[in-house]
Amino acid sequence: MPVFPDAIQSLVDELRKLPGIGPKSAQRLAFHLIVAGKPAINKLISSLEEARDRVGYCSVCGNLTESDPCPICQDSKRDRTLICVVGYPKDVLAIERAGGYRGLYHVLHGYIEPLKGVGPEDLRTKELLARLGPGSPVKEVILATNPDVDGETTALYLAKVLKPLEVRVTRLARGLPFGADLDYADEVTLARSLEGRREVT
Amino acid sequence: MSLYQTEGIVLSQTPLGENDKIITLLSPEEGLVRAVVKGARKPKSRLSAVTQPFTRASFQLSRGKSLDRVIQVSLKTSHPGILSDYAKVVCASYVSELVAELSPEKQQNREQFWFFSSVLDHLEQREDPWVVVKWTEVGLLLRAGLLPSFDECALCGGEIVQPAYFSAEAGGAVCGKCGQAKDAADWAGVQAGNLALGEQTVRAIPVSPGTLKTLEILRDSGNQCPNLTAKGQVRQEVNDVLQQCVDHALGKRLKSSLLVGSILVSPHRE
Fold first, then answer.
1. pLDDT of residue B270
2. Which residue from A10, B135, B205, B259 has the fewest beta carbons nearer than 10 Å?
3. Chain B interface, mutation test: which of A88, A158, A187, A192, most B Cβ atoms within 10 Å?
4. Model ipTM?
């Protein structure tokens, strides 16, 4: 059976470790890079090194940033009475993209997943409680975890530990996606939409 | 494409690629089934919400080489009472992991399915999930033929005399006579969590009569979860004994056992 030269095989093996990359995709990417030549490879190497050296986590909210604290935490125009709790840095991007939210964030870096042995102490929950300590300006914590079992479990845990603190705890609404057809909605989503219905004013 | 219809309970889910996920189902006709849910992670997916863990539904699946594929789902219950309580979600995750370990793949197991279905119903209804989790552990080990003996000495076969202790490695409860037959150093070892059996040293836990009685009630309650609760020493000992039984039966510790252990230490909402 024909085999790749060691250098290419090693490149394929490294690319395969990336999320969403299977053996075929890894081969395709490796051959593309080899064919693209030195300038393209050097540019990729310098981008990777730059990302490695310059990007870190914000010591306040845990988001990915080049400066510590991150631009959002430093922004004086942001509403400091609001904290939106999300699972991953990509969720901050999703909410920022949607617009309309001008408060601060807190990134947990995961969800409580009993089946993977991930408990509350493995997330940035202590850091969240520290931000809500005495003298904190925060009046509302928005739990923007995923609307699935792991996200719900994490939200239930956070609601429990935040209850004794004098802070309003809210959860993102769950229900029908905008633009969907009612008769195509599944039973669970429809039941949740009815539970969370709002008065039309 | 060979289609088949089965009732099932979703035990777990794992992401697959960008848009799909794999679920593990417990079915009465097929035992454990692993199936792909195409597009389940897209926001408008009709299958996403009805294939979340602890959901009981009627599934239409197509058979595949290694994994089946979910075609249609008709929801029976999503157990909202479990999903709205942190402790119950953690307990449901633990019993789901345990039943997945103790159920064979693609093998009819109606009794296991109906037992597990009633476990989730009880978990949803009961305020303190402790007794439901302990009844599930005993029930699943009993059905698998892996439950040690609680009412007679695993070494001499005689009546249990205090001070008694329990060792899954020794085969169950061990009477005080067998314990006392050892010299004082051995008994000190038992107190420290070890028991010498001939040349072997096994893990052992001192157990009170209340603990052994509770374990017997759990074992003899069949398909009906008993109405009992335990506090303090008995609760801790029952937790320790069953943890040892599960670890010994599976030859490993379940990932969710640490989290569930921290929740079941004291009665719920106390």
1. 39
2. A10
3. A187
4. 0.81
